Amino acid sequence: MNLINFLIITLVTSVLESQAEYTGGNDRCANVKAPFEGLRKKRHLTFPPGTAIVMTLSLVKAVLVHAPSGWNIAVEIDVIYPLPSPEMTNAYFKKKFHHRQKRELWETIEAALGSYNMNGRSCIYRSICEAKLHLAPAGRSLVHDILRSIFSAPVHEEEFKSEVNETYEELLEHNICEKIHDCPISLIEIILALNKSR
């Protein structure tokens, strides 16, 4: 009996000693093989240079020429938005680049509306003025927050003034929203109507 008790005690102590050596003491968990100090805290996506996302608006209307067959008329607008590459996300240019992206998006919308014989610049100004008046307070709607971030013009910031001064200098005027804009459509109302219909 004593020999069996001695063997059991010896086996249990050897298992406990090997387990203590495997875990490296009390500062580490038995399931973790690496210390917690070396783990990365931040993770982010990186895209290859030249990667872009395309946002497409498509309208299709069926035209019946001869029943049961017919034609489909399709109108599409593509907006290409470049995704940031590691070269673009330099910490020195982050704030200025934010204003540059906003200006480039405005220029893209202006060119898209210009291809349909509309005054795109006037539509951008109208959208900026309508965003001040018609959008809900921050945090109430994701669509309203996205529209506010696109169509906001922080004219009190010097970096914004230096970035858009050459192309959208009319924004720096105090009475820009009081002027009548030569834009037949309201981009804000169209997007909000699409949001309500869902």
What are the main properties of this structure?
alpha+beta; two-stranded antiparallel sheet; signal; 6 helices; single chain; 198 residues; DM4_12
Topology at a glance:
Elements: H1 2-23, E1 52-66, E2 69-82, H2 94-114, H3 120-134, H4 142-150, H5 158-164, H6 187-197
Antiparallel strand pairs: 1-2
Number of helices: 6
Largest sheet, order of strands side by side? 1-2
Mean pLDDT: 76
As a percent range, the share of helical residues equals 40-55%
The ordered string of helix (H) and strand (E) elements is HEEHHHHH
- Contiguous low-pLDDT stretches (5 residues minimum) are none
Short description:
Residues 1-20 form the signal peptide. The chain is an alpha+beta fold and 198 residues long.
Structural summary, described in words:
InterPro entries: DM4_12 (IPR006631). With 198 residues, the protein is of the alpha+beta class. The protein is 43% helix and 15% strand. Strands 1-2 form a two-stranded antiparallel ribbon. Strand 1 and strand 2 form a beta hairpin. The radius of gyration is 30 Å and the shape is elongated. It starts with a helix and ends with a helix. The mean pLDDT is 76.
